[in-house]
């Protein structure tokens, strides 16, 4: 095989794999909480929403998304520790696009801004952090204060 053909073949293979991986990553969707309630200006999410049972194994999710019809955008609820959570409003501060959870960080698909699990900007063009909410817990629930 000539050098030119070798380089062209490898470049096409790399491009193909990059496209496939990007497509597969885009297919991974966030888990949307099924047990969300609203009382006294608090969005209430069951802690059990973070637990997933797969093949008799207990897996703890690190992020779930809570939707409430009266909010314009959903809220990402990150599990930071045993009893530590952060709640981040999923509206990008750059141009108002919806931000998507990707593991332990958030990405705005509109212009590529990235945020950590506490809403702080890690990569622009956004310059302001995302809106966050105070979070309290009890034995069964997580309370997101929307005031």
UniProtKB/TrEMBL annotation:
It comes from the Bacteria. The keyword Transmembrane helix applies. Keywords: 2Fe-2S, Iron, Iron-sulfur, Membrane, Metal-binding, Transmembrane, Transmembrane helix. GO terms for molecular function: 2 iron, 2 sulfur cluster binding; metal ion binding. The chain crosses the membrane at residues 12-33. The keyword Manganese does not apply. Residues 71-144 form the Rieske domain. This is Rieske-like 2Fe-2S protein. It comes from Arcicella aurantiaca.
